[in-house]
Here is the input.
Amino acid sequence: MDSLELTHQIADILVEKQGEDILILDLRGLKTFTDYFIICSGTSRRQLDALQGAIRETLKQPSPPILPEGVEGTPESGWILMDYGGVIVHLFTAETRRYYQLEDLWKAGHVVARIQ
Here is the structure.
């Protein structure tokens, strides 16, 4: 599965689990460490945990399973980063997302989709 297909699959999971303000940024040509960022807000720490769990469980289903190269952060911190190589997923509480303003930091990236 290429990184764009993986990006769409993860976005579908986030929509299904009612993630909020989902932003997909194309960073190809800007950075070499990944192709896409997915930034999503959850309404609570509990929802962040559910979003993370849904992504992990769904991506473990195909054969071979798609496993993250790394996961950092916790629901309690308000920010979870899931690194799938070509796709990096950022799950935030709304407050933490406003604080770090990743959209502004990576504004050179092309917006592929924004799902409110």
